[in-house]
């Protein structure tokens, strides 16, 4: 029952399929070694032949089962959506559940998505705010080179796409530098000293 329980929960299969899970688990146990017979399987003990394992599939996997030509017309679908349940007893084929017709059928050709669903991963929380980087191979880990900080260099501004609007001289406030006023000023040097005294040009 432990194997059947694990098979149901691995693919999140409803418990109503427990009988199919038990039947498939027995099928797999007969083709696996155990603690009593570590080198031979129960199937080999009974039939004197090693079992083939290439046809084994993951219980509860969803996929598409092929429909024979004799059971469909040329315009009908060639496959139907199904869920894998196990292995047929008296014929070579798979037991699948038709998801559209809600029927259990036997088919010989099926394509299943056997990838993990909500796989189990062992994770460790980061401590002290440390970020843990995981790589596939420790030898392939690359240590980032230190980045040299270059001194800031003042660069000239790029050319302005649009010309700045002209500012009329009348818009200048009177308290600004008188050299920007309407008239032109020229420094005047006195004989007594070297202090310039601005005078209006006549």
Automatic annotation (TrEMBL):
Record has Acyltransferase as a keyword: no
GO biological processes: DNA integration; DNA recombination
Biased composition (Acidic residues): 155-164
Classification via Pfam families: SH3_retrovirus (PF25597)
Molecular functions per Gene Ontology: DNA-directed DNA polymerase activity; endonuclease activity; hydrolase activity; metal ion binding; RNA-directed DNA polymerase activity
Keyword terms: DNA integration, DNA recombination, DNA-directed DNA polymerase, Endonuclease, Hydrolase, Magnesium, Metal-binding, Nuclease, Nucleotidyltransferase, RNA-directed DNA polymerase, Transferase
Domain of life: Eukaryota
InterPro entries per record: Retrotran_Ty1/copia-like, RNaseH-like_sf, SH3_retrovirus
Domain Retroviral polymerase SH3-like: 62-116
Positions of region (Disordered): 148-202
Protein name: Retroviral polymerase SH3-like domain-containing protein
Organism: Phytophthora fragariae
């Amino acid at each position: 029952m432990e194997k059947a329980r694990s098979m149901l929960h691995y693919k999140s299969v409803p418990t109503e399929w427990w009988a199919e899970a038990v039947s498939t688990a027995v099928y797999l146990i007969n083709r696996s070694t155990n603690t009593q017979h570590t080198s031979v399987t129960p199937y080999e003990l009974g039939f004197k032949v090693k079992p083939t394992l290439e046809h084994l599939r993951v219980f509860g996997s969803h996929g598409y089962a092929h429909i024979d030509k004799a059971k469909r017309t040329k315009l009908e679908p060639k496959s139907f959506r199904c869920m894998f349940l196990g292995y047929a007893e008296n014929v070579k084929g798979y037991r699948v559940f038709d998801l559209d017709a809600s029927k259990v059928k036997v088919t010989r050709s099926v394509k299943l998505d056997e990838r993990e669903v909500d796989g189990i991963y062992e994770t460790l929380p980061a401590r002290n705010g440390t970020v843990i980087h995981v790589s596939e191979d420790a030898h392939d880990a690359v240590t980032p080179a230190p980045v040299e900080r270059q001194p800031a260099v003042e660069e000239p501004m790029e050319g302005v796409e649009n010309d700045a609007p002209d500012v009329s001289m009348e818009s200048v406030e009177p308290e600004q530098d008188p050299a920007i006023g309407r008239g032109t000023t020229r420094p005047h040097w006195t004989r007594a000293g070297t202090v310039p005294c601005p005078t209006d040009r006549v």
